[in-house]
Q: What sequence folds into this?
């Protein structure tokens, strides 16, 4: 059985902030970061939301809020929490689209793919990342934020699916 999930996230950019900019688990050397209680990693948040659309367990809500209260602000931990609800569902492919004017993503795409592959325990060839400015039509395209959308395709064996019916 094939299963598809979709998730998105966006955060406003804060200029000259003391927090590091982290996207897809990768640190960017920029003079700005994201306006968020967590590290504001929009890519990992969009992946987490895509998984939540499959498991129906909303991580980026009450669960992440409780984790933040305990000082857990690394988005990798939210993603790990989401993955714990997948059970026997296997992630096959991840497609990510980012809209932002800044930072420049092209130099970091391979590092981002490696980071995501390690977090999801899948081959990086099954992770696609595209980035666009969207011709500056949105606030993210104008440089005021970063927006990410993720689609994940997963599978669950028919045998396992039939056993639960």
A:
């Amino acid at each position: 059985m094939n299963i598809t999930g979709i998730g998105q996230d966006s955060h406003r950019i804060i200029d000259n902030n003391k927090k590091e900019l982290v996207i897809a688990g990768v640190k960017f050397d920029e003079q700005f970061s994201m306006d968020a209680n967590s590290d504001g990693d929009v890519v990992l948040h969009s992946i987490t939301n895509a998984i939540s659309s499959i498991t129906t367990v909303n991580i980026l809500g009450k669960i992440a809020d409780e984790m933040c209260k305990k000082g857990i602000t690394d988005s990798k931990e939210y993603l790990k929490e989401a993955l714990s609800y997948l059970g026997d569902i296997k992630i096959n492919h991840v497609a990510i689209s980012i809209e932002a004017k800044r930072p420049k993503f092209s130099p970091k795409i391979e590092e981002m793919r490696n980071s995501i592959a390690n977090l999801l325990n899948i081959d990086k060839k099954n992770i696609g990342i595209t980035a666009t400015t969207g011709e500056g039509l949105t606030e993210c395209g104008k440089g005021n934020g970063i927006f990410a959308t993720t689609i994940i395709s997963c599978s669950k064996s028919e045998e396992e699916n039939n056993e639960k019916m």
About this structure: Residues 2-163 form a domain with the 60s Ribosomal Protein L30; Chain: A; fold (CATH 3.30.1330.50).
